[in-house]
Amino acid sequence: MTINDKELESYYKNKNILVTGGSGSIGEYIVAELLKFKPKLILVLNKDDSKQYLMKQKYGNMKNIQFYLADIRNYQDVEYATRDMDYVFHAAALKQVPICEDHPIEAVKTNIIGSENVIKASISNKVKKVVNISTDKAVNPVNTLGMTKRIAENMFYRANSMFNNKHTKFCSVRFGNVIGSRGSVISLFRSQIQAKEPLSLTDPAMTRFFMTIPQAVHLILNAMYYCKGGETFILKMKALKIGDLVKAFKKYCEETGMNIPSVQTIGMRPGEKMHEELLYDNEQNVVLEGEDFFIVIPTQESKITPTSVQPK
Question: Does the predicted TM-score (pTM) go above 0.85?
Fold first, then answer.
């Protein structure tokens, strides 16, 4: 089920593509990968002017990439951005658990209302396909981030059957913790080691699913290719104990001659789960297994077979 770069180039070549949150950790890597496939235009939408400025300095000489400083909370901004677009990658979101816990209304405005704007604008402008980027925290959620992303997943699923949608296919991808992204625990440990601070350990038995940024973007590009409407794509990942991750960092410091950090146990923070999950129980019966990822098929299409999962 994994496709090669030649097929991806054929699929994305000469297409107009919008990336919301396009100057974030994931968004910028999506843009970098898409550029390899010679799209007609990539529009990078983000509300952070500093990130936009730095990214524009990096790619500003390329004729097929443009930057749009805008907010997905504003429907007019999103409607304008989706005009003449073939595909939309929706990466813009509030993603940090503690921030969303402290500011739940802001999470709702961005992750739910912003997503609604993307859906409505995409349908209005007859975008072909939209991929929503979600998180494993949306499965049996216990925090504001997970709840808002779960609602967003359902919105993108239901958008396929909206009465006024005759052209647009929507799907979601469900991430684990992305190594190297801003705010990830690995980035936190790295910064604490550099600052010669103790490593902040919540609970050594706590587990998390991890994926690299290239793996995440590979999943996203494949999801767009295979999307027929309503699916959820999930990378195959193994859970890792945070305690083992701390041991690995300490061993790395020892082997490289760096200062071996101490460990400070801080306990679980508000909104955290001991163990994240990739699937709901009711999704177990409607999931296809590929070489690299799972595909949760819409309920009404639960009888679909793996051989029928083809690009459209």
Answer: yes
Work out whether strand 177-179 and strand 263-265 pair parallel, antiparallel, or are unpaired.
Answer: unpaired
Task: List the domains of the chain with CATH numbers.
Answer: 5-178+209-238+277-308 (3.40.50.720)
Is 241 one of the catalytic residues? no
Selecting among 137, 149, 228, 250, the annotated active-site residue is 137
Q: What is the 3-state secondary structure (H, E, C) of 12-62?
A: HCCCEEEEECCCCHHHHHHHHHHHCCCCCEEEEEECCHHHHHHHHHHHCCC
Sign of CA dihedral 137, 141, 147, 152: positive
Q: Which residues of 158-194 are buried (b: 16+ CB within 10 A; e: fewer)?
A: ebbeeeebeebbbbbbbbbbbbebeebbbeebeebbe
pLDDT in tens, 226-248: 999 999 999 988 888 999 989 99
